[in-house]
């Protein structure tokens, strides 16, 4: 009798293997090359709520819903055809009893030297539930139970991806291809936290979260579960509006949110009031990035705060462009001085009594390679902030003095005009203005009496120490000091008169009151007349700025202003045009 080889199990052995297969905890089945169940164990029967025998000849793919997932389905077909040795995937099935979700890890693998494939289905619902719970914890804020920053960004990323794909079609999925965001920051929350403590602060945040969720849920345009409301951190929240219908939807939502937040809260026996600053952005999803949208929303929220809080503000591309330009300008200011991108124009200061040009004010312009000619209001503030005003101011002073000296030498027959140069506060504090002026006057040969410096009231008021010493030293050198834009600051004439100041430049806003010649405002005239009278009594000369009409010029002359400056006399002009404006030769 031939001995049984190792590949030929005895009938007894086969029975054992079969019994073990049936008794195994792991639900299993043997599947043939057509995908039909050859034999299933009791474990699989129990899992699927059927008798194991009933499962025979059933398509394995139906039992574990493999057709419900395109990738799993493809892999399944390849395993059946022997092109791939195994498939592993997780499928969501239903509990046979109560229909609860049942998470199954499905494996289908060829059995070496076997004719059939082995299907095993592990119930991983517990593991999955734990994972879900962990994920929920990771993605939600414990204080408000709202989605946190991480989940918010995940949803935003998905929303942008989905609607961007959709935008290539005709939004057949019912989407609009647009997206909106309300970025909200509470006003006055810090005070609550600081005075009543963090536990009360936390409860207030939770109460705010509830109201936000109500608003987001009751938006008539919201579909599905409503909009995503998330806590981004601290007292910052966001509402994400997928498939928004336009800015109206977003501003209506922001308005409702603002009303809701401003209603008093009863928290821990206290009645608390807060408000919110909300930045609103709404745009096409295509071409929008997560960062771009968030930055726009944050900037807009910041505008809402800066504009006075307790409001919503809509993103404004122009205002944003201005902000971007400001950044671009700030970074190119310093090298611009070295590259010689600045130029001066000069505007005459005309004697009211004789109508002659007594001096000119130097006004700086920036010929920016990208933005064209920029007026000083666009960049002087930035230059003051970043300190480059010191270098720029020195360049202006040197250029203006050199030019004034040139007019004098080129036109010896004319009465030489003085040049009036604007000086920023920071130049007085951060540089040795006195030494700079002395050096430049010496270098250019300009007489100190032909230089006037214009400082604003805020630069000289309350000045003790350094600014006062600088003013004294300059005045002793015979350089004149004028107070620019007078009347917009402290306007303490008595104090000014004790400083070494020789004149006032009356701010344009006073002259503007004279504009309507048919109905001149007598109050304005009375104020200006009183100021001029007082200035004269204190030994100060007065220049009126922004004189635009003959009527204004005439009234200012009658009131007693010494000099006038403005479009009525001349716009600011390049240096080469100044000689034509100068008075005839002195007698
Ligand atoms: P500011 O010193 O009060 O100069 C007068 C401004 O009023 C000039 O504007 C001038 O062009 C404008 N203006 C003159 N006449 C009229 C008029 O009839 N009507 C109106 N509406 N405006 C008139 P600009 O050149 O844009 O200068 C603005 C400000 O920039 C100056 O005001 C001054 O504070 C500052 N600035 C200009 N150049 C310099 C500079 O070199 N250094 C510093 N630190 N500041 C400067
Ligand atoms: Mg000025
Ligand atoms: Mg001025």
Automatic annotation (TrEMBL):
All copies of domain EAL, residue ranges: 326-586
Record domain GGDEF: where: 177-317
Pfam short name (any one): EAL
Coiled coil: none
Record-linked InterPro entries: Biofilm_reg_signaling (IPR052155), EAL_dom (IPR001633), EAL_sf (IPR035919), GGDEF_dom (IPR000160), Nucleotide_cyclase (IPR029787), PAS (IPR000014), PAS-like_dom_sf (IPR035965), PAS_4 (IPR013656)
Domain of life: Bacteria
PANTHER family assigned: BIOFILM ARCHITECTURE MAINTENANCE PROTEIN MBAA, DIGUANYLATE CYCLASE DGCP
Annotated protein name in UniProt: Phytochrome-like protein cph2
Gene symbol of the encoding locus: cph2_1
